[in-house]
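Field reference: sequence -> structure
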Amino acid sequence: MHEDGNSGGLRGEACATPSGVDQEFLALERELTMMLRRARASQGEMAREVHPDLETSAYGLLVRLDECGRQRATELAAYIGVGKATMSRQLRALEDLGLVAREPDPADGRAWLVHLTEEGRTRVGRVREARRAKYVSKLAHWDRAEVAELARLLGQLNQGMEK
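Structure field:
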């Protein structure tokens, strides 16, 4: 047994539950809380590996640009869930660090497209590869079908949370 990271209690211990709450959903809440806490800490580490001055919250923007290519700031803001002013500030900071650049949108001369610079692509790629290697190492004892099933279930959870 080990600590669950929330209340100092041990997993598997019988705990009093609020009336009417299923144990499965309490366990899900506990595990997701722990996973999200670790993910936030990990995102901060990855941001610093990309660039020591990179804000933690900006790392997700870089990953999105790495995965999807050029995008408008409004698309990035909607995806991340922030306002235009916050997005503009984050993009300016990323430009100052040499990680992203802007270019006019050929479809609309009033708009700009944001993309990773070569330096940004190199740095983000290196950090993402190291993270994937860490997952492979940590889950090496898992059957590949279990890894695939976990990815499928997390994808299903993420889709359900978007609705």
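Note: The helical segments are 23-50, 56-68, 73-80, 84-96, 118-138, 144-162.
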